[in-house]
Amino acid sequence: MPAVFFTLSRRAATVVTALGVVLSVSLASAQGYETEATAAYVIDHRSGQVLFAQNENIPLPPASMSKLMTLLMAFEALKEGRLSLDTRVGVSEHAMSFGGSTMFLNTTDRPTIEDLIRGIVVVSGNDASVVLAEALSPDGTEAGFARIATDRARALGMETTTIINASGWPAPGHVMSMRDLGILAEEIITAHPDYYRYFIETEFDYENRAPANRFNRNPLLGLGIGADGLKTGHTQEAGFGLVGSAVQGTRRVTFVITGLPTAEDRARESERILNWAFRQFVERQVVTQGTELARVPVFMGAGADVGLAAGADLTLLLPVLGDAPLSAHMTYTSPMPAPVAQGDVLGELIVRLGEGDGDGSVEHRIPLLATASVAQGGLSIRLTTALRAVLDQVMAPPPDPADG
Question: Which residue of 13, 128, 201, 213 has the fewest C-beta atoms within 10 A of its own C-beta?
């Protein structure tokens, strides 16, 4: 595997040196994975490493997968105390008017917030989504909810998302990218573990109204592969899609796919992409906390130099087959002014997976800590250093008149 070179920055000059540490990693694109999905996005939950991406930034109709935005808004309201699971809400004629997949609510019902969450997660209820949205909306309308949901999406970094309704019902301009759906799924998993448990439920029938429609459509649940969420989607325009997540061992993988022609194709591709993500990568520790990575001259110090050590471990996913170098560099001031205390943060080790922005690259920053204390030098050291600086200026060659 290739050695990695680091650029060391200083006040007066830039120094380039080789580091006696070898790092190597590969992005998923090197693995040659192919999918029949129109667009896809696969991410390792703990590291944030993008394992696969295809048309991930294209805004597309999300179908019922956009119900995850409605659920996130509800989870946030619950966490903030603006709602409780046993809060009962009314059903508007607008909410009752929806067809497709529903809880079969009517205007005489007063479902709880928990009923609505289960109705969205398990049976993908369009009516449940609208009822919940109207309860969350500042003006009590689905349109009002759509405005605040879009604002919240943008705040999360979901740059291509525009929410027009709460259910994913086909509507001009109602779009999300697969990357945005991945961000949304990761936010739900990370920020709302208490409510994430609903996604693994396989059956729900509100007041025994629709026994035939009580089953969760997620094809991965019950397969014994660690799948525990999140949401299917299907319309004629969008095709069949799934936002999925699964845990195996110490790893969680989250993925989004869309545009499959049939439910069977969706089920096969979902299981296939998870198997690939778990089998074709292995975790490796590439930086160890406390390892000295460089030594820096100390200006006017009692000692000549000080070591820089990694302030944290760094574990990355490496491909089982093949590799490609990651880019890495250290930044710090050189010479470092005295005094220096052991453990002071003196710089950063910056490790980037990928070749640049827009390719799923991930940047990791690790503090560089002083390995020892270096006191300020005595009078003789300060005088000697000052004299050397004066002599360096006197002996420096005059500037070339042609320069500048």
Answer: 13
